[in-house]
Design goal:
19 helices; alpha/beta
Length: 572
C-alpha cells in the first residue's frame, strides 16, 4: 500500500525534494538559537565582546528571516503538492467509478462514496503534505537537540530523556480519548447532514402533510446530540492540551531544580544552565509534534485504505476479443437466460424470446416478475447466470459494451436530468450534435414550442433532477435525447406510467414517432399502450408464461386476459 501511496509523489518529486530540504533547514535553524545563547553567555558577554554580540544577534535575525521564507515555501508549495495529489486521486477514483458495473452501485450508498471522494481524500492530502515534513523536522530536531544537550551536561540530559516516556504514555492516552470524542462528533455531524438532506429532499411531502413541526423536532434532536458530542470533544481536547502543557511545565521545573543543584555543586556553569533551560523546549516541542502527528497519520492511512478499496473494485470490462458491433440492425434473442441479482434467488428462469429487427415487443405482468431485469440485461448492465443474449446473432459478451450501448436508447419512468440547460440535457444523447439536430430532436419530441416560450429558450437551466419541469416535460426531454442518439434498439421501461391520461396521450405520440423503424421493447402496466405491439409476453415470477398478439392473448383467457379485463372494468 505504501508503494502505491508514494507513487502519487512521482509527478511532484521536484517540489517534494525542495520541501524536504526546506524542512531540514528549518529543523537545523532551530538549534542555532541555543548555540548562540550559550556562546554569548559563556564567552562574548563575560569578555565584553560587543562587536561579536551584535554580529551574532544580526546573524541570528538573518537566519530567522530565512526560516520565515522556508516556512512560507513549506506551507504554500507543500499544500499545493498535497492538493494536486488529492486531485489526481480524485480523478483516478472518478474515472474508476465510471467503469464500475451496475452491481457496485446496487450495494454501495452514494453518500458514502461521496464521503470517500471528499473527506477521505482531504485526510490523505494533509498526510501527503505534513507527513514526511513532520517526520523529518521532528526527527532532526529531537536528535540534534538531544546531541547538543549532551554536550552541555550528560546527566541533566539523561534526566530529561528518561522523563520523556511518561510524557508519551500520558499524551497518547489523552490523545486516544480525544480522538474517540471527535469521532463521535463527526458521527453526529453525519447524522445532522443525513437528516437535513432527507428533510430538504422531502420538503414537498412535508408541506403537503403539514409536518414542518415534526421535521423541526427531528432536526433539533440531532442538533442537540451534536452539541453534546462537541461538548465532550472539547472537554477531551481541553484535558489533552492542559495536561500536556502541564507536563511540559514539569519538564521546566525538573530542569530548574536539577540544574540548580548541579549549578550549586559546581557541575555546570551559569551560561550552560541558562542554555539548557532554553534548549529543553527545542527538545520537547518536536516530541509533542510527533504525538499529534499520529492521529493525522491514522486518518490519512485509513482514508487511503478506503480509497484503495474503491480503486481495487473490479471494473466492468469487455470480454477478451470483444469487437465493435458498429451500427446494429436490431434483432434481439434470449436463449434460456437465467439471472439472479444476489447470485442466489433467480429473478429470471430459463427465459427465451426472439425479437426481429424493427418489431415492437411488449412485456407485461405483475411487479417483480423480471420485466425491468430483461431491460437491464440487453445493454449488458449485468451478466447472466446462464444462457445467452444475442444482438444480430452475436452474443453480447463478444461485443464491446460501448458499441452495444451506443445502439440502444432507454426511456424510463424515473427520468434523470442534469442541473444544466435544456440544450445540454438534450445534447447528452450525442455530444457532437449540431444546433439544428438538437432543435430537430426537440421538435420530434413535441417540446420545441414549449422551450421557445421560455425567456432563455434552450439555455434555460432546469434545476436539480429537472425540478423546475413537470413530469411530461421531463419525459419529452428524455425522448428528445434519444431522438438525438438515434439508436436502432429502443427500450421503454414504464415510460408513461407516472403521467396523467392527457399528458400520456401527448407523450405517446412522441413515443410512437420514436419507435418507428426501431426494434422496441416496451414495459407497461397500462395495456392500452401496447395493444398494437407485434408480440406481447406475460412474465410472472421470472418466467414467460404467455406470449402472442393482443388478440391472441385475450382469446387465450389467461393472465393477460385477466389483466386486460381488470383494467377495462376500472375504466368503466
Amino acid at each position: 500500500m505504501l508503494k502505491r501511496f508514494f507513487g502519487y509523489y512521482k509527478p511532484h518529486m521536484k517540489i517534494f525534494i525542495l520541501d524536504m530540504l526546506a524542512s531540514l533547514a528549518v529543523a537545523l535553524v532551530g538549534i542555532v538559537y541555543p548555540i548562540v545563547t550559550r556562546t554569548m553567555l559563556n564567552e562574548l558577554i563575560p569578555n565584553r565582546n560587543y562587536r561579536l554580540i551584535v554580529i551574532f544577534g544580526l546573524s541570528l535575525l538573518l537566519l530567522y528571516v530565512v526560516r520565515m521564507l522556508l516556512n512560507y515555501f513549506i506551507q504554500y508549495y507543500g499544500h499545493v503538492m498535497g492538493v494536486r495529489m488529492q486531485a489526481e486521486m480524485r480523478s483516478d477514483m472518478f474515472r474508476h467509478l465510471e467503469k464500475l458495473p451496475y452491481s457496485y452501485y446496487d450495494n454501495h450508498e452514494t453518500g458514502k462514496i461521496m464521503s470517500r471522494m471528499t473527506n477521505d481524500l482531504m485526510d490523505i492530502s494533509e498526510l501527503a503534505h505534513h507527513g514526511p515534513e513532520n517526520i523529518l523536522i521532528s526527527s532532526v530536531s529531537v536528535i540534534t537537540a538531544f546531541a547538543y544537550l549532551i554536550t552541555i551536561n550528560v546527566w541533566l540530559t539523561l534526566i530529561i530523556f528518561f522523563a520523556v516516556p511518561f510524557l508519551l504514555i500520558i499524551a497518547t492516552a489523552l490523545r486516544k480519548r480525544m480522538r474517540e470524542a471527535f469521532l463521535q462528533s463527526r458521527q453526529s455531524v453525519a447524522q445532522i447532514n443525513a437528516s437535513l438532506e432527507s428533510s430538504i429532499s422531502g420538503i414537498r411531502v412535508t408541506k403537503a402533510f403539514t409536518n414542518a413541526e415534526r421535521e423541526q423536532e427531528k432536526f433539533e434532536r440531532g442538533n442537540g446530540e451534536f452539541v453534546e458530542a462537541r461538548r465532550k470533544a472539547y472537554k477531551a481536547m481541553g484535558q489533552f492540551h492542559s495536561t500536556t502543557s502541564f507536563i511540559t511545565d514539569i519538564f521546566n521545573v525538573i530542569v530548574l531544580i536539577a540544574g540548580g543543584l548541579f549549578l550549586y555543586a559546581g557541575k555546570i556553569e551559569l551560561g550552560d544552565y541558562t542554555t539548557f533551560m532554553v534548549s529543553v523546549g527545542v527538545f520537547i516541542t518536536p516530541v509533542m509534534t510527533m504525538i499529534n502527528f499520529m492521529e493525522q497519520y491514522q486518518n490519512g492511512v485509513t482514508g487511503f485504505e478506503r480509497f484503495i478499496e474503491i480503486i481495487d473494485a473490479e471494473p466492468e470490462a469487455d470480454a477478451p476479443g470483444a469487437v465493435d458491433i458498429g451500427k446494429a440492425e436490431g434483432k434481439i434473442e434470449f436463449r434460456d437466460v437465467t439471472y439472479a441479482y444476489d447470485g442466489e434467488h433467480d429473478v429470471l428462469r430459463n427465459v427465451s424470446l426472439s425479437i426481429d429487427k424493427g418489431k415492437t415487443f411488449a412485456l407485461v405482468g405483475p411487479s417483480g416478475g423480471g420485466k425491468t431485469t430483461i431491460c437491464h440485461l440487453i445493454p449488458h448492465f449485468y451478466d447472466v447466470e446462464s444462457g445467452q443474449i444475442l444482438i444480430d446473432g452475436r452474443d453480447v459478451h463478444t461485443i464491446t459494451n460501448e458499441s452495444l450501448r451506443r445502439n440502444i436508447g432507454i426511456v424510463q419512468q424515473d427520468i434523470y436530468l442534469f442541473n444544466a440547460s435544456i440544450r445540454e440535457n438534450i445534447l447528452y444523447g450525442r455530444l457532437d450534435a449540431t444546433e439544428e439536430e438538437v432543435i430537430e430532436a426537440a421538435k420530434r419530441a413535441n417540446i420545441h414550442e414549449w422551450i421557445m416560450t421560455l425567456d432563455e429558450g434552450y439555455e434555460t437551466v432546469i434545476g436539480e433532477r429537472g425540478v423546475r419541469l413537470s413530469g411530461g416535460q421531463k419525459q419529452r426531454l428524455s425522448i428528445a435525447r434519444v431522438f438525438l442518439k438515434n439508436p436502432p434498439i429502443l427500450i421503454l421501461d414504464e415510460a408513461t406510467s407516472a403521467l396523467d391520461n392527457t399528458t400520456e396521450i401527448m407523450i405517446q405520440q412522441a413515443l410512437d414517432e420514436l419507435c418507428r423503424g426501431r426494434t422496441t421493447i416496451v414495459v407497461a402496466h397500462r395495456l392500452s399502450t401496447i395493444k398494437n405491439a407485434d408480440e406481447i409476453a406475460v412474465i410472472s415470477e421470472g418466467r414467460i408464461i404467455e406470449k402472442g398478439t393482443h388478440d391472441e392473448l385475450v382469446a387465450a383467457d389467461g393472465m393477460y386476459a385477466k389483466l386486460h379485463s381488470g383494467q377495462f372494468r376500472e375504466k368503466i
